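Quick one: structure tokens for this chain, please?
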Amino acid sequence: MTAKRDQVAGLLLAAGGGRRLGGRPKALLEHRGRPLVEYAAGVLRAGGCAQVHVVLGARAGLVRSRAVLPDCVLIDNARWEEGMGSSLRAGLHSLAGTGVRAALVSLVDQPGIGPEAVARVLAAYASETSLAAAAYDGVRGHPVLFGADHWPGISATAVGDRGARAYLKANEDAITLVECGDVAQAYDIDTEGDLIHLE
């Protein structure tokens, strides 16, 4: 497991401005008494990622001052308003040259996904060609693991809010689905009504 920990970095996308939440950045929503970005980064670590990169965007300065993110590499995405694709590109770019062979990507607004799901998807890593994703009752979701061989293709197609969706669709046959529905819930915190999921 140690080898996998060293070869796979956690990549947390936490740049969203919370447009449907009245402009409250999702990274700063409170969960268990702390900013949500802290919780999400901790989940990646607890799930087995020795290195965690966090992409910030909306109110990045405030997030940096409020959230305690020890040993995380923080990336400011100046183009966060373009959507998740720009954050994914920025995150993958930050991993280039680090020696990491895969990125395990998670989203800050999915607190129902804990360390167990991260560990399961991490265990699907085999090499730079690996492509794996958590599944919930057979439906693909997050976290998603991208071997480094896939990063150029993902970066070329990650636009708007689609993230890696187009790339994953084009490479569906290569994806190892890892069922996580028994240990995690894949809801998003998108609207005021979703805030009931925060503790």
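The chain has a mean pLDDT of 92.
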